[in-house]
Amino acid sequence: NNKSKNVSPNILGRPTQVKSMCDSSAVLKLDRIILGTHREKGAYTFWSYAVGLPLPSSAIVSWKFCHVLHKIMRDGHRNVSMLPFEFRNYLLKSIFNIICIHGYGQLVCLYSKLLCTKMEFHTKHSEIPASLEASDEVLERTAGTDINNVFQLTVEVFDYMDAELRLAEAVLRQLNMSIAISTLTSGQCKLAPLIQVIQDCSHLYHYTVKLLFKLHACLPADTLQGHRERFHEQFHSLKTFLNKARDMIYFKRLIQIPRLPDSPPNFLRASALAEHVKPMVVIPDEEELEEQEEDEPEPLIDVSEAQPSMASQPQVLGDIFDQAFGPPSDGFDDRDLQIEHLKREIELLKAELEKIKGEAQRYITQLKSQINSLETELEEQRAQKQRTLVENEQLRMELEAIRRRNTEHESMQTNFVEAESKSQATELRYNKLKEKHAELVANHAELLRKSADTVKMLSVTQQTQEEIERTKQQLAFQVERVRQESDMKFEEQRFDMDKLRRELEEKNAEIHKVKSLLQTSEKAGEQLNSSMAALKTEKDRLTQSISKKDADLSSLMKEAHLKEYSLQQERDRTIKELGELQGKLKEKLSHEDQLQQKLLDEQFALLQATVTEAENIIQDAVATLDDPLHINSSSSPDYLISRAEATLNSIDKLQVGHSEYVKRMRDAGSLVRALTKFSHLTADTIISGSATAHMAHTDDADRLTEHCKTCATQSLQYLRNLKSKASLKGADPTSIQAAVQKILRIGQDLRPKGIDVGKEELGDVVDKEMAATSAAIEEAVRRIDVSRKGTKLFIRHRKTAGVKPSSSVREFYARNSRWTEGLISASKAVGWGATQMVDSADKVVLHTGKYEELIVCSHEIAASTAQLVAASKVKADRGSKKLGVLQHASRNVNEMAANVVASTKTGQDQIVDKGTMDFSGMSLIKLKKEEMESQVKVLELETMLENERLHLGGLRKKHYEIAGVPLEELAQDNGLRASPHVTAAPSSPKPSKPTLMKKPALAQKPNIPPKSTVTFSFLFFKCCTLFHLLSSI
């Protein structure tokens, strides 16, 4: 006994498994196998014994094996359905080789295909258990919100249902062909798996209906015509199968088969979903089945053994009768036999009566428990009803809020009418929901009176709860759709306004470009005139130098004749020495040939060692791709692009080094250096490509990994060609270059689409915007200087529009694109603020503007200048002297802006009339009336002030949102593609930039204090100085 306690439960389950899969047509009992899967949390022991079964040679064993696998997948542990890949191959290879023996071969093939389909489906959708008993929420979560995923899931459920129905039709067809009876052992062996098929089909039918209604809510009906036809075929096949199974005696005791409706659901009508009833399959408990099997006699009799036993049956009965009542007498009494017969019938009737009483008591207890569960479910549904009422009230409040918000837009009146009609439809549905709840209460009362209909009422209750949830989801979906439609209309209007503003900005930019081109052409003409004068002076100087050179040439000719004589003598002496040197030269040439051959061998050996090391580096990189530790690594597409570009450059250098080595094989230095750099960069590209693939989508990741492996293969092939002298000259890295270019293109595709301005253009854009801003400030200073007439202000300005930035500056702007866009935005804001300040000053002087506009413009210039300095401080060097000068200039700009604000307020105080009121001749009633009117005016002004502050807060919030998004993302959100000529909105609360107005004549301006004019000019001078410092940094 002690030894048996220590035996593993898996070993204890082995006899049951072997007995279950014997080669005989008997029904299986799988309780211990199912319990064993829950104990070991899997089916590894089952598979370890199943591998040794004779599946290819015995069709009945294969049929029982499929039945056992199907049963434990449904009722066993959830890890059973997650079978290893080798076991699936074993299942297919073993069962597909079965020859059709006694009709089981075809059934086994269909059953194995069904099991493979089931395993693939539940492996892909692990949220849905193998028993398919998942709630609607799990189904919605599995399908997701992407309509493509819903479409694919529907097709997979259709395939699942087809496999189930094909197996069921084949089993029933064979039973009809062989005229088998469901009460025989062979017939029950074939019919037993159909219990699991009925359970699967009931859930799959419900899933199909749910998914098709969801597809019809999102896609047009013509697109789903094929889905509807396929569902109708499956519906009729499933209904025929369930009707046939319901008429069989075998299923009546084991399973309660549901009934399908007379006609399939109408998916073109959305309200038909409320009429759908989920088919419920009820299976009695195992204890009840065991008690029925104990009470009932053995129904199955082996026909082969029946005939011999019939001959011995009278003798056995006679022996039992003699033992009980003694030997028979000579007389024969029929009454004694009748009495004994009646007694036996009484005993049988008593036993049946007790059995009926026990079953009745058991049914009574079951019905009481079901009534209690229904009462609890009714309470839950009441609570659910209350929650639904609260949610409906919240939805009504949201609809009212939507209506109040949509009244602000006069162009959306038609949408409001649709929203009201939809809200009335939701109210009608809510009334229907209340009516259904009343029906539920009446049905519950009927349940208390008629306990025999508990199962059907349970399904009705579940249907009502699903309808409540579905109605709530439809209400939420309709409200969300109305909200989205209103938001889309508002976005379209805002998009049109932004488009008009951008067109206006483009026109202003074109005007500024034309002015700048005119100025540059005038300066070019002046430079040509000055160059002509310089050329004339250069011509005079050259004529003088030519006369001097002629005199020098004559003296040099004399010296040449003397040197020629001396050289002739030297030549004779050299010829003698040449003969001696030629002999020595031959000796050196032979020695040099030997050294050259040795050098060639050493250079080739050095090349071979370098190639070997390069192969090792690339092979290590390839091995890293399959390393489990490398799976958690990741890399950015930008780094991959940099590595790929560097690899392409190294391949170009490698080609140059290879051609030089082929021409001059005594020097392999350039090829060795190129190979070293190439191997390291290629390995970096392969590893970076694999790491980047870990963060990409599945298709991009597969393509990127495949190209990395192709790059490694081509690189190793190229290196192998370099090892051999025969293939050295024909080695070509073009295939490597093509593979790296593919990796580069994929990296560029994976790169975030946040920057549409090219790297080579970004630096030019910065300089153009700086130049445009400086030009705007200079124009503002010029206008103020003209107005002052006597004040001359010298502005030093370095033109940056005509000078292209160096490559290092352009690369710096390209690397820091987000910072560069912020710098461009701030520079635009400064230029626009300067222009706006001059326009506001003109309006104030002409008594058409407000002093507050000057104050706001001063604050805007100070804030934008601070943003420029902060951006420059982030990217400037720690010890930069120009940064200190820039900060000093920024402080001066802030001081000048403060002076402008102070001067503006002083002028405003001088102009405002502060005279005392005349109260003479005013009575008490008139004073009281004036006081009340003044209070009303104060309240109105306070309300207007509060509304303007809220409006200002909204504008600032939207400005911050737009400023925080990259330029190209903002353009994509508006449905446009950003270009170098379309820039982001300036960092200003104003929605658009006004054009520069023509300045009026000075005679129209009244006299104003000169302090503010000087402050304006000095403020703009400081802004110009600040921009010169920014461009130098």
TrEMBL record:
Start and end residues of each stretch annotated as Disordered: 980-1004
One Pfam family it belongs to: HIP1_clath_bdg
Molecular functions per Gene Ontology: actin filament binding; clathrin adaptor activity; clathrin light chain binding; phosphatidylinositol-3,4-bisphosphate binding; phosphatidylinositol-3,5-bisphosphate binding
Predominant location category: cytoplasm
Keyword Cytoplasm: yes
Keyword vocabulary terms for this entry: Actin-binding, Coiled coil, Cytoplasm, Endocytosis
Keyword Cytoplasm carried by entry: yes
Subcellular location: Cytoplasm
GO cellular component, one term: clathrin-coated vesicle
Gene label: hip1rb
Coiled coil: 332-524
Family: Belongs to the SLA2 family.
SUPFAM superfamilies in UniProt: ENTH/VHS domain, I/LWEQ domain
Protein name: Huntingtin-interacting protein 1-related protein-like
GO BP term, pick one: endocytosis
Stretches assigned to the I/LWEQ domain: 717-963
